[in-house]
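Objective 1.3, modelling of assemblies. Example input:
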Amino acid sequence: MKNKKAVVLLSGGLDSTTNMAIAKEMKFDIYALSFRYGQRNSPELEMAKNTALKFGAKEHKIIDINLASFGGSALTDNIDVPKNKGDQIDGSVIPVTYVPARNLVFLSLATAYAEVLGAWDIFIGVNALDYSGYPDCRPEFIAAFQKTANLATKAGLSQKNQIKIHTPLIHLKKSEIIKKGDALGVDYSKTLTCYDPTPEGLACGQCDSCVLRRNGFREAGIPDPTKYVR
Amino acid sequence: MKNKKAVVLLSGGLDSTTNMAIAKEMKFDIYALSFRYGQRNSPELEMAKNTALKFGAKEHKIIDINLASFGGSALTDNIDVPKNKGDQIDGSVIPVTYVPARNLVFLSLATAYAEVLGAWDIFIGVNALDYSGYPDCRPEFIAAFQKTANLATKAGLSQKNQIKIHTPLIHLKKSEIIKKGDALGVDYSKTLTCYDPTPEGLACGQCDSCVLRRNGFREAGIPDPTKYVR
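Predicted structure (C-alpha cells):
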C-alpha cells in the first residue's frame, strides 16, 4: 500500500524534529514545511534542512513570511531576549518571546499546503506542559483549529476524509520527548531551540528554551549534546 | 471617546472596498491589511493603496506571502482563467480559481496583526451568496475561525474582550453590496475584482468575477463605471 502524505511543520528545534521522527515512524511520506518569519535565529533553518533530508522528506518548502513587520515580540523585534528566568517558567505569565498568533498562522499555511498535496494529515510539535504560557499550544486550540480547517477547505467538504492535526508531543514532558526522539534515532546535536543563538549556531544556555532543554536532558538521563555558550 | 481599532482585510476589489466603507461608517480606526500572494493581478493592490488612503486608514500593511509556491490554483498558477462560465456560477462546483485555504491564511495573519495592535475587531468582505462555491466564505467557517482565533491568542485569554470577525456583506446579494457602497460614497471605478485584468488594470469582462459584477450593477440599477476589455 502507498504511504499516506503528511505535512510536517519543522522549525529545526528539539520538539519539531522529534515530531518529524514520529511521523516517519508512523510510515507517512513527509512534506516538511518551515518558515522564515523574520526571526533572528536562522541557524535553526539550516538544522531544519538537514533534518528534512535525514528523514527522507519528499519535499521541504521554506516559506518567507514577515511577521516581524507587525512587531510585538522579542523573537522578531530588535529587543533583548530575557535571560535566567528559568525559575519563572510556570505558565502563569506569557513571555515576551511570544510571537502573535504564530501557530495559527503556521497551521493555516500547513492546511493550504496539505490541500494542494491532497494530504489529510498535519503534524505539529506543540507541547502543552512546557509551553511557557503560549495559548496556541493548548489542546483546545488545536481541536478548534482542526474543525476550522475542515470548514475552510475544499478538502474538508469531502465526506470521505477529514483533515487531522497530529500533536504527538502535546502531553509529554520535555524529558519524555527527548527519550522518545532518542529511541527513534534523533541526533539532538543537530537541533536548535535557543531563542538567542550565536551566528555560528551555539545556544545561549540561559533563555527559557535553553533552560527547559537542559533540564529535559538531565531528567531523561541522556547526555546533552548541545553546544552552549555557557 | 476614542475610536476603536479594526483590522480590515483589503484586496482592492468591490467587496473588500465596500467592507472598508462599512467599517469606517461604524467609526472604527482602520488598519488595512493586504497581501501580495503571488497573484497575477497586481493592479488591484494599487487600487487597495488608494482606497486605504481615501478612507483615512491609520496604517496599511502589505504582506508578501507566496502561496504560489504551493501551486494548486489558476489565480497563482500559470494556467488559463476560465471564461464565459457565468451561467454555471451556482455554487455547486468549486472553481479552479480557488486559492487553497486563502481566507484561513488571511484571517490568521489579520489576527496576528490585531493582537499586536491591541485590536478586537477584524473585518472581512466575504460573501456567502455569490461565493461561487468557495468553502471559506461560509458563515460556519467564520464562526469556527472566530472561536479558534480567541483560543490562539493572548488577546483571546482576556476575560474582558474577545476577537470579533465582522462580515457585513456575508448575506448580501452583489446588487445589495453595490447599493450599500454607493450610498457610502465608494467609487467603484477605483476597485478591481477581475481574475485576469490587463497590465493596465482593465477588467476582462468575461471571468466569473466580472460576470457577477456586471450583473450586480445591472440589478442595482446603478451605472457600472468599470472599464472592461469587452
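The first strand of chain A starts at residue 5 and ends at 9.
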